[in-house]
C-alpha cells in the first residue's frame, strides 16, 4: 500500500509558480509520481513544467499495459516517456516567440513490485529514507555539481556558489535529451522524497529527513513553511511517498 502527500508553493519572491507535480491515486494500476521545476520568461517555465508532466504521464499510461513488466522494459518505458516529453516541450517552444528557450527539470518515480523506477533530468532531487538513513538517489545536472565531481570545489562551497542554478541539462531546451534512468528498491516503510531546488537550497538534508520521518502527511506543509521562513526565494514543491 502506498501513501503520498504533496505541496507546492509560490514562495515569497516569484510572481508565478513554475513548479508542477502529479501523484497517483493509491488504486491506480500504474503508481506514478512526478515533479517538474520550469524555467523561462513570460510563463514559459509554467507551461514547460505542466506540459512535461502531462506528456510523460500520458506516454506511460498509454504504453504500460503493452509492455512486459520486466526491469528492462520498465526502465525503457520511463526513459522513452522523458524523451517524448522533451520533444513535446521543445516543439512547443518553437511555436511561440515568447516561449523560446523554455525548459524544465523532470523527476519521475514509477513504483511497481517494491521497486521504484526513476527518471531524472535537471536539479530537482529524489531522496530515499530507509530506517535511519537518507540517501540522495539523483545527481544534479548542474554546473556546480560537475565542479564538485571534478574536485574543483567542495560540497560546502557548492552550497553558496554564484552559478548554483546553472543547469547542464534540462528537458525541452534541445531536440534530444539523455535522462538518467535507474531502479532502486522500495521496501515496506521506505520513504521517497521528491523536491524542487526551492526546498533543497533553503532547508538542510537533516531537516528534510526529520520532518519526513516524523509525519509524512504534515511534512510537505512543514517543509514548505521552513523554506519560506528561510527566505522563500524560489517556488517550493515537495512530494512524499511511503510504502506502508
Please explain how this structure is put together:
- By secondary structure, the chain is α+β, with helices and mostly antiparallel strands.
- It has helices at 44-64, 71-95, 143-149, 155-159, 197-200, 205-214, 219-229, and strands at 2-9, 19-23, 31-39, 103-104, 106-112, 115-121, 125-130, 133-136, 180-185, 191-195, 236-243.
Mind summarizing the main beta sheet?
6 strands, antiparallel
Averaged pLDDT, please? 95
Q: How many runs of DSSP E, i.e. beta strands?
A: 11
Q: Architecture, CATH level 2?
A: 4-Layer Sandwich
Primary descriptors:
Phosphatase 2c, domain 1; five-stranded antiparallel sheet; 7 helices; 34% helix; globular
Which helices and strands appear, and what pairs or packs with what?
Elements: E1 2-9, E2 19-23, E3 31-39, H1 44-64, H2 71-95, E4 103-104, E5 106-112, E6 115-121, E7 125-130, E8 133-136, H3 143-149, H4 155-159, E9 180-185, E10 191-195, H5 197-200, H6 205-214, H7 219-229, E11 236-243
Antiparallel strand pairs: 1-11, 2-3, 3-4, 3-5, 5-6, 6-9, 7-8, 7-10, 10-11
Helix pairs in contact: 1-2, 6-7
In brief:
The protein has helices at residues 44-64, 71-95, 143-149, 155-159, 197-200, 205-214, 219-229, and strands at residues 2-9, 19-23, 31-39, 103-104, 106-112, 115-121, 125-130, 133-136, 180-185, 191-195, 236-243.
